[in-house]
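I am writing to request your help with a piece of structural work I have in hand. Thank you for your consideration; the sequence and its tokens are set out here:
=====
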Amino acid sequence: MKEAFLARMREYLQDEYEDWLSCLQQPRFRGLRVNTVRCDVAAFLRLADWECRPSPICPQSFYVTREHLGLHPLHAAGTFYLQEPSASSAVEVLDVQPHEWILDLCAAPGGKSTQIAARLAHTGFLLSNEIEPKRAMALLSNMERLGFSEYAVSNSDPASLCSALAGCFDRVLVDAPCSGEGMLRKHEQAMEEWSEEHVRFCAQRQREILASAHDALRAGGILVYSTCTYAREENEETIKAFLEQFPDMELLDCGVSFGRGGLPLEGFDSAKVRRIFPMDQGEGHFIAKLRRRGDGIRRALKERKEKPAETCVQTFLKDQLNDPALHLMQEKDTVYGRLQPFVQLGKIRVLRQGIRIGDVVKKRFEPHHHFYMAAALQPSMRHVQELDLSQCEQFLKGHPLAGTQRGFVCLRYQGFPLGFGKGDGVWIKNRYPKGLRFNEQVKLC
């Protein structure tokens, strides 16, 4: 490792420095978080045929040692998200409440957004933003797999987004891009790219993002800032500078027992923030919780006017759902649905708001994978076929399945959706997205 980095860590940790070095020689922590809009924790643990050791950081998070869980059908069904447990710490501090409006400003690949959405449990509204287009698509894919509906994914720069949506959010999460020092055991390139200049660059970018986040937060709202780096410049010093720039913000105690207080910094109450080191049973993380002084309600956005759905859309929904009551929005030929009314999000680039139900193609309707993955719709699904493990493997590889169903059918494993197919009474043609299909040589975990 670079000597300059090690010297900084020796200063930070002092008597614990050797313990930290020893931890870095051990395997990194692995974990998962149960998606509670799919199933509760107890039900998931009954189904999981591998050891799950509880995390002290989040009740839904567990340490695991089994590898390749991304190849398990329960993962494809969105019952869990692969996430090292300390990465769940920021949302624990954010303390999401039902019906709130939340902004996750730097959201890809979706670990924290999916955690927030699960806490909202089909209430309120989550806007998950990612400035990098490819990462935004990965975020969207994860939101889709885990089955959320009351959210939007945007692909916008933070300044433009927060200016357009000033005062619209009860809580804002800034999981800021950083130098990644805390991920050394996961990403070796973090050390190769490390330099004090890079740390300073990240700190400046983080201060700009926080200034934007301030605009989006209503009076009385909560802002949580987190990183996966050890650098004091990107953590305590960044929060101190933010408080100096915005006197209407106050630092709150994180209110959690995991981890430890921050590094000492003159003029800053480091006891209120939290740090996690490998000695604390996690990779490197920093979390700070702030409140915008005053009392106020969020600025309400206008609802989008709904137009009557085309006949083929109405016919499809009545055939597929026992209770087809959804708010619908059509953009060109694509139809979206939400439990709550759609809102106008201005000129920011929105990749999706709500469930992508499907597309109108030459006066017929072609459903989308997201419709059959949406957790809120599962209890209403009329046409369902359960798959055993062998059938799961065939389906996830894109093969047709035997089945007596006719028309579109939701395919499930252990009661959880994997996607859909279209039956002719003998075979069910596979409609699992080609970009998600498993390689033929792969065996399910």
Q: What stands out?
A: The CA atoms of residues 393 and 443 lie 8 Å apart. The chain has 14 helices and 22 strands.
